[in-house]
Input
Amino acid sequence: GLDERELCRWFRKLSVGIKTACDIGASEGLYTLYFLARTAAEKVFAFEPSAEAREWLKSNLGINELTDESRLILSAKFVGRRESDQNWISLDQALLSARPPCLIKMDIDGGEVGVLQSAPKILEQLRPLWIIETHSLELEKGCMRILEGAGYSTTIVPNAWWRCVLPEL
Output
């Protein structure tokens, strides 16, 4: 299908040779499955706080014969800045064992800036590659400000032409 097809070449390009992959907002696991099946990543972190979405993810792992994949670290925690809450974890804390090169995909419908703010060590030391989906111009600018402040250059991937006819749901 057409599901986020405009990102396919970016995932192929940025995941070459990665040792760590991280899927923040894993949902039903499309990118988690990609990282497990199509990369040599030694560890794949998947964060999905929705119990329903995690069940879909687990089902999709089973369908793809990846249920017992030892590289997968699946977490029900929210990633961000509320470290005093046991349901939240900072990205710095979550990726303590991550090794470079690392690719992080993030699609969490509003909390992207908070995740980046929870990752000063990751941004400085691990220097991961990022694919971040934002859902407003304000979020896009906030993410760009943090990333560019940490020495990253950013690229905006435009929506595919067919989004005016078939919008992403």
Observations:
- The chain has a mean pLDDT of 92.
- The beta strands are 20-24, 43-47, 72-75, 78-79, 88-89, 102-106, 129-132.
- The first helix runs from residue 8 to 14.
